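Morning F.,

Quick status update on the modeling queue. The single chain you submitted on Monday has been processed. Sequence for confirmation:
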Amino acid sequence: FEISLIKRAADAGNVWAGTIMILIYTGMRVGELVRLTRFNVDLDAWTITGGIKTDAGRDRVMPVHPKIRPYITWWVNNPGPRLIHRDGQPISVDYYRKSIFYPTLERLEIDYKSRGLTPHCTRHTFATLLAKAGAKTTAIQRLMGHSDYATTANTYTHPDFQELWEAVNQI
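Structure tokens below.
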């Protein structure tokens, strides 16, 4: 439900909602997103090269899902010092969290406080969407930039209760 609200806002021209969609459909950490330049984006191959933190995550190549291509294209065509910027100025992770992410969710009337939603939750959403779609565990692991799938499976994928019922009913 929240993803459709965010997508609707992004499609209506809310560029900050578009950045949330980018996080959801790439699995990037906010720190990875705000460090990108437009030179990390290959619009011909529809890939983004970036990543930080671990050897497995550093400089990984991430496919750009068709749903987020318009948002990526918008940022590439509005150059600044970084791919995502505010009025031509680079932004920090803390600034993104406090001045972009949370205010955008508030404007969309998404109750992030009671649900404990943070920008990092977009990585969990990405992993869960991939798992629900039946993506191979090795692909999910590589896309997340994890060296061990146990990290991905135990920390990032969250089956909903209906899926758990369906799994139990299979036996």
